[in-house]
Amino acid sequence: MNLISVNKISQSVSGRMLFKEATFGVDSDSRIAITGRNGCGKSTLLTLLAGQKKAEEGEISWNRELKTAFLEQSTCYDGEDTIADFVLSGDSREISLIKMYEKLVGNEEQKLDSDKLAELMAEMEDLDCWNLESRIHSILSELGIGDVNSKMRDLAGGMLKKAVLARTLVTESNLIILDEPTNHLDISTINWLEKYLMNSGKAIVLVTHDRYFMDSVCNRIFEIEDGNFFTYEGNYSRFLELKTLRQDSLDKAESRINNILRNEAEWISRGPRARAGKDKKRKERFFQLQGQVPGKKSESDNFSVAGRRLGGKIVDIENIGKAWGSKKIINDFSYSFKKGDRVGLLGGNGSGKTTMLNIIAGRLQPDKGNIDTGVNTKIGYYDQLSKELPGSMKAIEYIKETAEVIELRDGSRLSPEQFLERFLFPKGMFYTLIENLSGGEKKKLYLLKILLSNPNFIILDEPTNDFDVQTLSILEDFLCNFAGCSLIVSHDRFFLDRTTDFLFVLDGAGGVSGYSGDVTTYYSEIESAGGNKVSSAGKIKEKKKVVKREKKGLSFKEKQEFGNIEDEIMMLEEEKKILDVKFSSPDTSAAEFGIMKQRYEQLEACIEEKYNRWEFLDAKR
């Protein structure tokens, strides 16, 4: 049955065309994902389909039998309402009867009116309300909403999202429209939501950056690109294959975006389940080889900043503990980070993931235990809140505050403008005041500034919430080539699979276990174990012990040398930065360039020697 017919609709914003002459239908068996860059009009299209807004051009026809449930990114609610009030705030007769029943039997202070109850139950029987009530309780239980009497104003981000999602799912409908349904949800809830939607028997139209979610749930993909509207039959894997073919036909096979598509197509075509249990490094090597265009070097290869050199000690965590009131968040946790560690942090909503990140980053003190950060460890921390950016500053000026020249790991250099382009920041926005940027563009700018600050330890707290799929692919390439350490919290399984190979798993009661492998394999093993904890996960401190060697101490002369060596390194690094700026100056002659290049190589060798000496002395202390 056809539910919605869309005929040649066009929509613009502030004179900019979002999409033009889009024509398609939504049938009762359609499960559609809409994809495209930030700001292309994905959410706008959802509001048009929901009938909340009229298209500027074209027509949309809705079937009389259509009943729509719409999950928007932002939802209004009364903070004084309980979760139960909010979830059951629909206006259908069935919902009204269930609310009356719950109120009647739940009021212990009032004498139960048996005649009224019998009359109510009879009408509920006629309208099959008991099945609906059972479904409501099942959904609340699966979403982990236990206390339905909690006030909406007291809910944190993850639980608030679950309450809004619950209201959407219990609404009587044959079409569910979802705008970023996985944002702020933990991975277990996302896995459940996938299965629920696939078995719902309802039509679905959604916008999400979660590629595994699209691949599992959807059977059609709509893409908005440069104002054009494209439709593809099949799931996300098939979309990548078909889009690559279309790009080839347009002679864009060697473009940056197409390389990303080839990489993703190869990665995801093996399927989340197929990847479980396979060797991670072998997969990544195969992924890298398949992503290269024959005879050409992909721009994503080695796309990562050079990064400050890590010392022998990075971050040592010893027996830390943290609690909020009576709730234990972390209990007796120890770990020693090593160069190249790529760690993902898992746990349910409210389990303490952000708390742990803040402790490791030095923003929050543990109640007990010690955090020992190496003197040469520089942490770049992208948090969920992100600081307020200076609105009166232009985007490019904000980036240039951090670096005038960006050196990559392969020795090549980029200007700030080129770096922004690599991350698909719109050229037309370079000289736009930050206050005029969208929320997603501000988040991207903030992330790029952190990446350019020369960190050797990157911490990311839910980096995928505000970025489109293309930007996430580039960030994944960046992190895969990053030479330092990374610690990431994300609900995006695809993102974690590509960027991590070891997991910290928080149980919400203070326990932290370790798992060597990727997220897909971890959850596959949990499913095989019937939902129990994975047997191969163990205490972190048993997984990687901090080996303490007997130290003989420094001589008086060595102590003096150790005290001065960091300042010497900083002076050499400053001279390198000055040369970096001069390299990009149009006033530099060829002769001067040759002399500077020779000095630059001398500086690099000297810095390397100083670092080696510093590590030796630091280990001996």
What report would you give on this structure?
The protein is built from 22 helices and 21 strands. It is an alpha/beta fold and 621 residues long. Strands 14-17-18-12-19-20-21 form a 7-stranded mixed β-sheet, with helices on both faces. It has a 6-stranded mixed β-sheet with strand order 5-6-7-3-8-9, sandwiched between helices. A 3-stranded antiparallel β-sheet has the order 2-1-4, with helices on one face. The longest helix is centred in the last third of the chain and has 31 residues.
In short, what is this structure?
The protein is of the alpha/beta class and 621 residues long. It has five domains: 1-67 and 173-251, P-loop containing nucleotide triphosphate hydrolases (Rossmann fold, 3-Layer(aba) Sandwich), CATH 3.40.50; 78-162, no CATH class; 252-290, no CATH class; 315-543, Rossmann fold; 556-620. A seven-stranded mixed β-sheet has the order 14-17-18-12-19-20-21, sandwiched between helices.
Name the poorly predicted regions. Answer: 277-298, 541-551
Shape: globular
Describe the largest sheet: 7 strands, mixed
Helix content: 40-55%
Count of alpha and pi helical runs = 22
Side-by-side strand order of the widest sheet: 14-17-18-12-19-20-21
What is the CATH topology of the largest domain?
Rossmann fold
Overall residue-averaged pLDDT value: 83
Named CATH architecture of the largest domain: 3-Layer(aba) Sandwich
Could you name the CATH homologous superfamily of the largest domain? Answer: P-loop containing nucleotide triphosphate hydrolases
Radius of gyration: 27 Å
**Distance from first to last alpha carbon:** 76 Å
Number of domains: 5
Strand content: 15-25%
CATH class of the largest domain reads Alpha Beta
Structural class: alpha/beta
Number of strands: 21
Keywords: ATP-binding, Nucleotide-binding
Pfam families: ABC_tran, ABC_tran_CTD, ABC_tran_Xtn
Organism: Candidatus Thalassospirochaeta sargassi
Domain ABC transporter: 1-251, 315-532
